[in-house]
Each structure stands twice: as C-alpha cells, then as structure tokens.
## 1
Amino acid sequence: MRAPLILLGVGLAAWPITASAAPQSLPPIPHPPPIAPSFQRGPVITADVENISLLLPTAQATCGGETVHAAYSDDLAVQSVQSAGAVETPDTLIRFSIAEDGRTRDIKPIPSPHGRFTSHSADPLAALAAWRFAGGARSDCLLTVSYRPVPIAEAASGDLLRYFAVTRTRGAVRDAVGNRLAGAEANCGGDRRGGRRPRTVSYPDNLVGQRPPPGGKAWTVVRWDINAQGRATNVRTLGSSGDRAFDAESRRAVSATVVEGGAPLKGCVYNFYRTGPTLPAPAMPDRADEPLGSCPTDVRARLQIRPNPDTYPKGFNDRQIEGWALVRFDVATWGQLGNVTLLDAQPASAFGEGGMTTVRSSRAESGTTPGVGCIVPVRYHIGARGNGETTQAEAPAE
C-alpha cells in the first residue's frame, strides 16, 4: 500500500462556514484485552542501555471531577529515559470535552509545573482524539497520564511489547528490547529478514477482519525462524493489542515471505500495525464575523496563503485524524500579515498551532487597502491510501 497523501486546504472565509466532512456518530466499541504471552529472557543488555528505564503510562479521565471510562481506547506509547539516578517524570495533563456522539474535542495540553510540555507528552493528544466515551456530551474533562519508570532489564514482557510495537523508535533501546523478545538463542541480528535479500515479500492485508475504529490503531509482534531454504518457520505471535484477525494475517504474511537461503536463523522479530479509517474533522461552527473586522475583496485577492503539509501534527497524521483551525489576522498595505490570532481549532489545539504557522509564513501583494480581522480556515485532510481510490484537494472557500 502507498503511504497516505496529506492534503491541506486553505481558504478565506465568508461566514457562515461548514466543514467539508461531518463528524461520524459511532457506537461504543469495546477494546479487547491485549495478548502478551511469556517468553524466555534474552541476552544480557549491553552497558550503553543498562541505565535506561521504560516509562509505563497509565491514564485516568475525569469530567467535572468524576471518573469517566472510555468505551474505546488503545495503547499509549511507552517511553524511555536515562535512569542512572532517581527518575522523576511529571504527569501529562490534557483538557478536553466530549461531544454528544462520544468523540473528544477541545483537546489541549496543560503545561507541566516546570513550564513546559514534556517531550513524551505528544502521543496522548492524538490517542485521545481517537477515544470514544458513552453517556452523551460532557465538559470540563481532564486526562491525567502518569508514568511509572521501570529499569529495562526488569520490564515485563507486555511492557517490552508495547515499547517495541507502539512507540516504534529506533536505536540501542529498541535493539535491546528486540533482543529480549527474540530470546537467548536468537541470531537474526535484529533485522526483519536476517540480512538476507528477499525473494518473495508479503505484507498483511489491512482490510482483513474488523479494522480499528476511525483514528484507532492495532498492533501485533511476530517472532519466527528462517530455515536453510530461506523460508519462515515456527511463526508465532508474541503479543498484540488483541486483534486476532490481524494477528493471523500478519503470521500469514511472514510465512509467505521468502529470503535467499543460507545458514538457518533464529529469533527474527518484527511488529506490524494498522490504523482505522480516516477520522473526519468535527464540523466548523456557524458564527458571526467580528463586528469591527474588515477584509475587503481586493485584500482577499492579494493574499498568498499556501498549504503547508509540514504543519500537519505528526501524531494525528499517523492516526489519519483530520482537523481544522480558524485563524484571524491583519494585512498591511505593503503585504505583511500580522496580529495572527487563533479563533478555534478542532479536535485539538495542535491544529491551531499548525494553522497559525501557515498564516505567519504567508504574505499578500502590496496594495492601497489594508485588511483588518481577516479570517481564514486551514483544513487538514488525509488523502487516499491507494486501492484505486482518488482524492481531490478541497477548493478554497470564498
């Protein structure tokens, strides 16, 4: 499959505005328990990672001070940190609200007591956008994500699997985790094909079985050996998020892959994941223009606001979650844009940051008329994944 094409639509707004796609109303989808069978402890971890701890996340959601439980949620990423001394990791705090259909909105991080949003905090924002809650609309909601440090040498199999499959990093820590998963006798070298040139490659069909809901993710970790003819043997699932159809499809893909022959190899380990369908952005609200706002037609014609896909928030892009931002700004006669202000962004403030970056990097042709209170909607869209589908970029709104 091809990677998704990111389309970002920008247009000057004349109110009222409606979104290009309405939000979906979804029934609560239960989340199956993860599968994490035990396995043999692998080789001793090398010195360069022996002082690493995994940060294991747990999340609690409240609305109005009362605990609420998600009807659907998926795994948060496990992070890692140097742990030569005591590990103190602040909680990640995220404000949000719940719409009538159970979708989360108004997602915005609360800075840590140290005055910054920690580097491991971005993942829960996008994950929360895919969660669903039952019970109708709620406001004043808070997601608290706490992190428990565990030395990597003492981590349980389920925690190692989540780091390997959900966090999806590269480097010495991932290699050490992969060695643990592979087992003491592994000699595949941490490479999916054991360094062998592929002869036949098969990939899982992501449409097999029940896909995750829009914005959701499923993962699976597979271990296998390679015989002298280059064929996979002893293929088994080490653990997964609980999607058994995807587990079986991933094992089939591994079994159908053939590499060039050679000395037999043991303990090849790889993770596969799939996302649900694209989650459309919530609808834009209808609202009156600012009473003092003035953005004449000739000013609009001079504006050069170009889409900037680089501003698409990565975690939301990875989950195929769409969003939008409404940005207000002024235009000077010499073409400079200033007083850039975010009016609204959904489903998360991350789209507002991207939208303001897009506007700030734009300008207008010089003229005799200034613009005050111009408003532009910046829409973030996920394009087609292939399979014969085509996607048209959204035309600018007038």
## 2
Amino acid sequence: MVAHSGLITVMQRAARKAAPKIRRDFGEVEQLQVSRKGPADFVSNADRQAERTIVEELQHGRPGWGLLLEEGGAIEGDPTKPRWIVDPIDGTSNFIHGIPHFAISIAVQEPKPGGNGWGEISQGLVYQPLTDESFWAEKGRGAWLQDRRLRVSSRRDLADTLIATGIPYRGHGDTERFQKVLGAVAPEVAGIRRFGSAALDLAWVAAGRYDGFWEEGLETWDIAAGILLVKEAGGFVTDFRGADRALESGQVLAATDNIHSKLHKLVGAALRG
C-alpha cells in the first residue's frame, strides 16, 4: 500500500461516498430531471446531489476550509487555510447522454502568503465512478493510479502520438481558432481524440494513455487536479504561450517532456498564422 497524506484519504472518501448514487443515476439516465445552465451546458440532479455529498465529507474532514464549486460557486473559509476545488461530474453532457466517460475531480489549492489570493495546487484526485479508477497526486510525491506510480509516455516522435483535445460547441469557444490549431496538429500525429472530460484527459496523459492534450476556455475545477497529475507524472503543462499560467487562463497545453515543445510550436504557429 502506497503511503499518502490524510488529505488524499479525505478526498477519496468523499468521492467514493458520492459514487454509488452517481452510478445509480447513470443507470437510470433517461429518468433524470435535467435543466439548462446555458446553451448546450447542462446540469442534472446527479451533479447537485454529488456536490452536496462531496462537500459534506470535505468540510467534515477539514473544517474551516473554503471551497470553489462548479455548481455552488465560491464558499469563503479561513483565508490562511487551503481551499477545495470540486467538479462533481466532469463530463456532464456524457453522463446525461449515457456515455460512460466522466469523473469526479477534487483538488487542494494553497493560499498565497498573507492570505492574498490563491497559489499552487498541492493535491489532486480524478476519480472515475464507473471503473473505480482513482488517479491522485501530491506535489513532490508523484502521481498514482491506485497504488501504481504513473509516468507519462516515453514516445518521442509526434508521428507516433495520440493527442486529446476539446472541441468548441454551441455557445462555447472559437470554432475558427480551433480549426487553425487542428489543421496544424492533425497531419503530424497518429490520432486526435475528443472524449468530453478534461479532467480524465489530463489523468490519461499522466497515465501514458495520451501523449498530449490541448484545450482552452476551461474552468478552474475542470483542470486543477489534472494539471498536478501531469506534472507529478513527469509531464509539462503550460498555456498556449508556453507560460506556467494554465490554471489562471483556462488554456491548457499538456504533454510529455519529449512532445510538449513540438506540440507547442505547432499550436503557436497556427495561432500566429
């Protein structure tokens, strides 16, 4: 058994407590009451119920901590303590269409000195309720899938790589801008995948299933845990300019150490062009 901090235990307990209800709702997806948050952006009863369950467990485990929630927004806590970042179901559209690809994402964000805003992500968990796969990472202690250490893939040639992305959809993203990047990347790689959960895409980069990932317009709760997973698995995560500002900008370019610079050049050239 791999030793990890009590925070990972709290996060896993929260995710696993919410998971049975998520699985039941997924099995009865046709009966879910679904409302619209915006164009093509759905929220289900399962989302809200899962978030409540997770929040209760996290608050019990660490009283006084603040939270940043996909559904519930920001909940202030002690500014000198870390906060939780929670996405109860990343991949909600997949969930409500009966597609078994979604995850719970939980991260810990440290306060900046003096309580002046928020800094680095120190712990992260991406949990797939249907497969019971628990991807977790702690800063400086590596990334793991259950008790197996994760490392990004060792592929060196773009021609051999499988790259994940997110595609603009109704009301979200710049289709023309995306097409420029796609047109630059697609001819150079073995394949491109769009599965609909940024949290799992990043976890799969950390696990070596994908060699890279790019997307923009993402929210903090979509990527906080996944960014740490990739970094702790030996990968690189930047924005499209190559700066370490992916979490702040919502613009993510994640890849193995061998592939990141090559992918970055393709993306940068496409956007400049």
## 3
Amino acid sequence: MRLLVTGGAGFIGSNFVHLTVRERPDVQVTVLDALTYAGDKTSLAPVADKVTLVEGDITDAELVDRLVGESDLVVHFAAESHNDNSLTNPWPFVHTNLIGTYTLLEAVRKHGVRFHHISTDEVYGDLELDDPAKFTADTPYNPSSPYSSTKAGSDLLVRAWARSFGIQATISNCSNNYGPYQHIEKFIPRQITNLIDGIKPRLYGKGENVRDWIHVEDHNSAVWTIIEKGQIGETYLIGADGEKNNLEVVEALLEAFGLAKDDFDHVKDRAGHDLRYAIDSSKLRDELGWEPKYTDFQSGLQATVDWYKANEAWWRPAKEATEAKYAAAGH
C-alpha cells in the first residue's frame, strides 16, 4: 500500500506515521507537511529512513495532484488546530482547513483514491457541565470558534464529495489527544514543560471546563481500524471515556511531579471557552471492535511526562517563543 499522510510531521500525524512504520512495515509512507511552527521534521527523525517527507502546502493543487496520484490511501491530518490562534487570526484556518481539504478532495476524486479525514469533537460545540449526554455521529454541528467552524466545514465538504461524487471516504471525530510530540502551546505539554522548568501550572478560570482525553496511540489505532473495517461514507467518533475537567488534569500533573495538588496559578478564562466535550464511541467499538489501550489516565499522563523529560532537545527550542506569546495575551 502507498500511503500519503498530510500533516504527518505534526503531533497526531507523526505519531500515526510512527505507528504505521512499526506495525505495518509493508506500507510505503509519504508525508506531506508545510512544516509550519506546529510541524517539525524532527518528530519523524526516528523513522526518517523509512518515510518520504515532502515539504509543501495542501492548497498547492499541482503538488497534491501528483502525490495523490501516486497513492492508494490518503489520511488527512493537516490542519490549523489551536483555538487561541484562531481567535487572533482566523485566515490560516480558512486557508488550510477549508481550501486545503477541498484541494485534496478534488485530487482523490480525480484519481479514485481512498480518503480518511481526521476531525475533532469541537465541531459539535459543547455540552453543559451537568448534561449526561455525549456527542454521537448524529449530534448537530454547533461550532463556536474559527478553528472548530473551519473543521466543521471541512467535514461537510468530505460528506458532500462522498455523496455527490462517490469518493471513497470516511471521517473520524476525536476527543482531546495527549502524548509524545505535542507542541508545547497545548494545555498538557505546556504545563509539563513549565513544571520541568519549575514554573507553576496555569489554569483557565475555575478549571471546570471538561475535556474527554485520549492517548494519541489509541486515537491512531482507531484510525487504522476505521480504514480497514469502516463503512465508506460513515463517520466514527473516537474516544476513550476520559472525561476530566481542567482542574483534575492539573492536579494529576502535579501528582506526576510529586507536588501538592493546589500548587498552581489561576489565569483569566479564554474567550468562548467551551464547557464540556464528551464522546460516545460505541459505534466504533460495537461495529468495528476497537478498544483503547490507555484506559488509566494517570498512567498515560505519567508516560507522557516521562517522554517530555527525556526529550527536552525536541521541545526546548520552541519554549521561549511560546511563553512570550502567552505572556502577551495575559496567559
């Protein structure tokens, strides 16, 4: 199989490439990545001799057409994905998430290539903190930020191309990922790297906002399950029953470092901060037989802490600029 992974130098994409090389050695992997601040070729260094890396933009129609034409399967991770950044400058999110996805869809349509689209649970908006409901594939879309709205738009483009033009596509919407190679602008790795530097964690507002956490290895094993067993045209939600509010995550991180659970600082809450996400992954589990491996959040978090401690050379170069940007925003 000839596999094209867009965004394969990013957090989830690079972990997907690692998993593929490790468990499917017969798959020929090509990565297309623009290598923006969130994409790092060093994330692929351990598998560099087994992967072809092409630096380029998914809105480059000529390049995309050539690479898709040489592939049997496209897995589309490439996206602008940071909510805070989307509030500051929405354009890159429109450019990559909408125009980039359109460009890929036209190429897979032309060449008849199987396509899997990676999306987020944030397209569904949020749930009330005391609501027992969870997101399902039938939950109406209700995005609340430029990031989530452009991801919702990209999902709808995939659905339209599948229905109107018959492309062989599936979609997955996943809850919040954590694990190795995640950019330190994100919540968990930012707190981990701050703690390594002796800086207290910072918590938005009261820390009541809930996210449904999943280890990136579980996300990617689910993606392969969908590719191999999923029904064309269907959407599958990926989650590991990992609901934690932000306060609980900070407390778990402090525990992983052997510190007191109240040893953190509060900061002003983020604008438009969604209250709660929760994934119902029963369709994926019941129909396709997938199960997560990392069912204990504390142990998965400890493994992630250990990785950042052992790989300072990977994250250190971006730390100063990341913290300067947060400081300018008062966070």
## 4
Amino acid sequence: MTILIKTPNEIQKIRVAGHLAAEVLEIIEQHIKPGVTTNELDHICHAHITHEQQAISACLGYHGFPKSVCISVNEVVCHGIPSDKTVLKDGDIVNIDVTVIKDGFHGDTSKMFIVGQPTILGERLCRITQESLYLAISIVKPGIYLNTIGKEIQKFIEDKNFSVVREYCGHGIGSSFHEEPQVLHYDANNSSVILQAGMAFTIEPMVNAGDHHIHVMEDGWTVKSKDCSLSAQYEHTIVVTNNGCEVMTLRKDDTIPKIITQEMYA
C-alpha cells in the first residue's frame, strides 16, 4: 500500500477543489423541493460545475457513470443515478454526492437534504449520521491508527440503534479520485496504518436505519439497503495537519471548524 503524502502546493489544489465541491451543495439546496426530479438537480449541478466554476465533474463518465452527481433518495445508500422518473416528495431524505476536479485535483463531499416536512426517523437518521462524521473528524491527528476512525463511528452509530454499511468506505484523494488508504467506517481491526501530516482522504459514513446489509440494483450502480430501511450519508475531504486536520469541503451550514487543532503528546 502506497499512501501519498501531499505537498503544500498539492494541498492548496485540494483546498480549492474542495471549496468548489462544497459550493455545489450550497447552491443546489434552494432547488430541493417536492415535485423536482433528481435529473433536474443533476442538470443544475452540472451547469454550475462546468460553466460557473470552469471545473470538471469527476463522476461524469467515471467507469461509465452517466451523470454529474450521485443522488440517493430514502433507501438508496449510494450511487443513485439521477432520473426524470425520480420525483422528490414531502419527507424524502436525499443525499447529493459531488466530486469536482480543478487544476487536476479532486474535492469530494456529500450531504443530506430533507424535502419539505421531515419525518421523525428521517431527521434523526440524518442528524446522527452527520454527528458521526463530525466525531470522526474531531479525533484525526498524526500518530493515531486509521482504524480508530471506523471504531469510533461504529460505536457511536450502534449506540443509537442504527447500523453502518460495510461494503463502501472513504478513500485517499488527490490527483486521483480514489487513492490509498481505504477508510473503513466500522471496526475491522485490521489496519496498521498510522496517520501522518499530509495525508488526504475522505470520511463518508453510510448509515442505515435498519440492518447494515445492502443490495446492488441491476443498473450496476444503485445501492439500496437490503431491508429497504432509510439510509443517510455525509462526507468531507480532509487533510491531516501537524496537530489535527483541515476540512477541505466545509460548507456554511457546517458546525465544525475548518481547522481542528489537538494537543499533541510525545
């Protein structure tokens, strides 16, 4: 396993790409309402990335993916393909996953949106999932085992009687969309990787209201919870600093600092 340590210049490029990815999630929010199709949302995101940002959508054409963003509704865990057939309705929970390429570097992020009036379960699932991401980010610093991230996420989620999807994970990121290391969101207890300053990766827990098992649909992309329970995901791109981490995809609605500093011990 080769984990690339990013240079200050590369980190700055990830910072720029991350800011643009976050911006897409900020501008799309006003368009998420009952009656809108996920394909309409994809068109808006694509136009903003290509025309306003003069950037590239990493998803479009990636291994054949046909759209510019992934949009996953309710029981769809991830990789939902925007469609004219998927019409948002009151109470839906919606994940939009955006990856922007700018000057050859990637910024990758996603968040949940609630359409109209939330259900009690939908609101709680989204809130707990975001809290698990914030918890994971808050412990990142040089010297800890990478597996600590997954261990803390799993404990937090299962204490809330939800479950963590096992089959998909966070990943290193930079000039490539997916790099080493893999960032698991559960306690696999098999990682000897120790975090170092300059590592760049995503943390993106996928949390089901029911069982953690999933099913991939016939299109080869759309992933649903096997028991059709609601699923939520939040994702940020982060870079490990000398004494904590920096969140490269921070949005205005986030409630964590962009730069997190921790006390370091010898």
